Amino acid sequence: MAGAGVKGGFSYGSTDEYGYEAAENKMHINDWHATILHLLGLNHKELTYRYAGRNFRLTNVGGKVAKAILA
Hints:
two-stranded antiparallel sheet; about 20% strand
């Protein structure tokens, strides 16, 4: 994500003492995808594809842009 509009030298969130799971600022994979698509200039809510007669989104029904990491 370096040079993509994300703050440099920035750490987002923290883990437990063993590094096993996130403790603060947990981010779902749908949030990660929404943030990457936002940095690419795409609206993740409008990006859909058709499969088996249904419209699907990469971020499913969730996904929030993590504005705290944007420069």
